Amino acid sequence: MRYFLSAGEASGDLHASHLIAALKQLDRDAEFEFLGGDLMASASGVAPVIHYRKMAYMGFSEVLRHLREILGNFKVARNAISKFHPDALILVDYPSFNLKLAAYARKLGIPVYYYIAPKVWAWKEWRVKDIRRDVKMVYSILPFEVPYFGRHGVNAMYVGNPSVEEVDAQLGLLGSVDEFRIKHGLDNRPILALVPGSRGGEIRNNLPVMEGVARLHPELQGVVAGAPGIEKSVYGKFCSLPVVDGCTLELMRAATVALVTSGTATLECALAGTPQVACYRANGSKLSYGIMRKLIKLDYVTLPNLIADKTVIPEMLVHQCTVANVDAELRRILPGFAGRENQLGGYAEVRGKLGVSPAAANAAYHLYKSLCGHD
Q: Are residues 203 and 119 in the same domain?
């Protein structure tokens, strides 16, 4: 069968590459075309129609500046889908672009499947109508999404969470904490991991607060997780702590505690078993916080809390994300304090709800069954 996949970011490239590998195990005659990156190219044996580096535009102003390229990418993608005419279009997150492809594919009579759905339950809920109209099945990686989509008339099933198997696989390959210290020239103090995000704005807003907290704890060694594609000089504008590149999970595993910008990293930190405080400063105004709370109709914003459906990790958001507030929460999860054990117990609940199912393999199995007429 023919499969066309679309992933617009590095994380999507990773998850889609595992899905491609799983489909090849099931379908020996599988042919692929895709929008994505090097990992998908390696798994499929073909080059991307468009590399995700030419697609990854975020935010209104950036999209506006690159509107001509985005429209050009969409035209190229439409033409490729029309010419290849796959048996299935498989979308991986990246909703602004992918939902337009879904509408186009539906008009061509091509069934559309979503692996790793857009977080419409948190933001831009109106998109759920497009998903209901254009997508045959959502293969969800978050268990709470299935009842949500069901309430909106969207077919969805939970296939497992790829972070569980990816994190556990990586943890199994890591050396000791002492080896990590020696490798990066660190001293013997307990490590406080600072994970300020992967975009310039996140780093600018969150790292100064994180460093301010680290300076209150000379007994801890603050270490910053460098993100892919971000020069070390960027971090030097906002703090003078050591930066380690390309080893965020290893840093979190080696740390005694962590300050983590809200996002997938909070789930990875939970799976690594390191107590944390979630930080998301943005512009820090109460007005922004009020607007966010009205737009995001959820009790929580971090994945561990959403999955457990209770407060597992403290969320210091916008104007609440100050040095004093974050430090107060950090002190509750230091060794010897009850908050630490409570959080570790919450982590166990998160793991229990996520399970250990191999997400890509499950999604590939159900997708292939669907295409073979065995829904």
A: no
Number of domains in the chain: 2
Buried b (16+ CB within 10 A) or exposed e, 1-25: bebbbbbbbbbbbbbbbbbbbbbbe
Strands 156-158 and 315-317: unpaired
In the chain, what is the straight-line distance between the N-terminal and C-terminal CA atoms, in Å?
A: 16
Question: Is residue 193 domain-shared with residue 336, that is, in the same domain?
Answer: yes
**194-203: pLDDT as tens digits:** 999 877 788 8
Q: Which domain holds residue 187?
A: 165-354
Does 213 share its domain with 349? yes
Contact 360, 21 (CB under 8 A): yes
Question: Which amino acid, one-letter code, is at 58?
Answer: M
Which residues, other chains included, contact 283 with Cβ-Cβ below 8 Å and sequence gap of 6+?
Answer: 205, 318
| Whether residue 156 is found in the same domain as residue 12 | yes
pLDDT tier at 289 (50, 70, 90 boundaries)?
very low
pLDDT in tens, 309-367: 999 999 998 888 999 999 999 999 999 999 999 999 999 999 999 998 899 999 999 99
Q: Are residues 35 and 128 in the same domain?
A: yes
User: Strand pairing partners for 3?
Assistant: 32, 88
The pLDDT tens digits for 218-268 are: 999 999 999 877 888 888 899 999 999 989 999 999 999 999 997 889 999
Q: Do the beta carbons of residue 132 and residue 153 sit within 8 Å?
A: yes
In terms of Cβ atoms closer than 10 Å to its own Cβ (0-12, 13-18, 19+), residue 202 is buried
How distant, in Å, are the alpha carbons of 206, 254, 303, 315, 318 from that of 261? Answer: 7, 18, 12, 10, 11
Whether residues 314 and 181 fall in one domain: yes
Measured between alpha carbons, how far is 371 from 89 in angstroms, rounded to an integer? Answer: 11
Model pTM score: 0.85
